[in-house]
Amino acid sequence: MNQIMNQTRSYLTAKFDAMGIHPQSRLGQNFLIDLNLLRLLHESGHIEPHDVILEVGTGTGSLTAPMSEKSAVVITVEVDPVMQELAKQELFGRKNIRFVKTDILKNKNKLREEVLEIVREELNKPGPNGEKRCFKLIANLPYCIAAPLISNFLLTETPPMLMCVTIQKELADRIVAKPRSKDWGALSLWTQAQCHTEIIRIIPPTVFWPRPKVSSAIVRLTLDEKRRNKIPDLKFFNEFSRVLFFHRRKFLRAELCSAFKNTIPKVRIDKIMDKMEFDPTTRAETLPLKTIQQLCELCRQELLKLPENKQKIL
Question: What CATH code would you report for 234-310?
Fold first, then answer.
C-alpha cells in the first residue's frame, strides 16, 4: 500500500504541524483515517477503467489516489487552496487527475457550471476500448454540502450513474427512509424516485480526524434510469416533494391548498383528494412514493390548464 493510503492520524498531524496548518471545521475538514473504511468507500463505487470519477473534497488525496489507479480520470474539487496544494504534492505524477479549486455549489440550489462542464468534457471522451464513459460521484463529503449536492445532481441532465459517499448518518437515514417513519420526507422521495438507495456501513466519529460530533455513514445511490424517465417533470416533482413536507403534521388537504392557493381552487383540490380516495385526515408522511407521484401528476395536470405564467407552486 502506498504512502497516500497510509495517511493515518499520526501521519496527518505531523504533516499539518510541519506546514503550520490546521483542519478547518467551517469547511467540513474531517479526514477519514481508518484505512479499511477508505478502502470500503472506493471499492463500493465499483470503479471501472471507463469511469469518470468526481470527488468533492480532495483533502489530502487519500481517496483520490486509489480511485485514480482504477478509473479513466478523477476530477477532484477542493475549495481550500492550501489543502489542494498539499494534495497536488502528494499526488504528483498521476496524470489522470484533474484538480479544480472551487466551491462545487454556486448556491444551495445550483451546482457550479465550471465543474459540470469538465465532467461533460471527460464523458465525451471514449473509454479504453472505445466504450462510453460512465459518471460516478465518490467522496468523503463535507456534511454542510451533502444534501444540496446530492439533490442538485439528480436535477441535472447528466446525473451520476452511481453516488457512493460518506455523509452524516442522520442524512443517510433520510435517504433510505420508508413511509410512516420519522425520516420519511422530501429527500427520501426525491432520491428513491430515481435511485436504488442503501447504507453500506454506519461509521463512528472515532474514525475521523478531527472527530465530528455525530456518526456518519457510507451510502450508495444507484441511478435507475427507468424510474427517472417515468417522472414527467423533474423540476416540478422536486418542488412538489418539498412543499408536501413543509409542515409534517399538517393534513394533506391543507398542505395542498396552501401550496397552490394562488393557482388551483380548493374545489379542484377536493376533486383530486376524492379521486385518490384520501381520507380527510391523510398526511403526506403516511403516503408511499408511488401514491405521491400519482398525486403530483394530478396537480401538475391541473396547473397545465392555466396560463403559463401561473403554472407554479408557491
Answer: 1.10.8.100
- Other Cβ atoms within 10 Å of 70 Cβ, number: 16
4-229 CATH: 3.40.50.150
Which phi and psi angles does 203 have, rounded to 5°?
-130, 140
Q: Residue 308 pLDDT more than 80?
A: no
Angle made by CA atoms 244, 144, 138, in degrees to the nearest 5? 95
d(CA 92, CA 72): 17
Strand partners, 31: 209
CA 117 to chain centre: 18
pLDDT, one tens digit per residue, over 223-277 is: 999 999 999 999 999 999 999 998 888 999 999 999 999 899 999 999 999 999 9
Q: Which pTM was predicted?
A: 0.93
Which residue spans of the chain are classified as CATH 1.10.8.100?
234-310
Is 191 within 8 Å of 197 (Cβ atoms)? yes
Comma-separated ranges of CATH 3.40.50.150 domains in the chain: 4-229
| pLDDT of 101 above 60 | yes
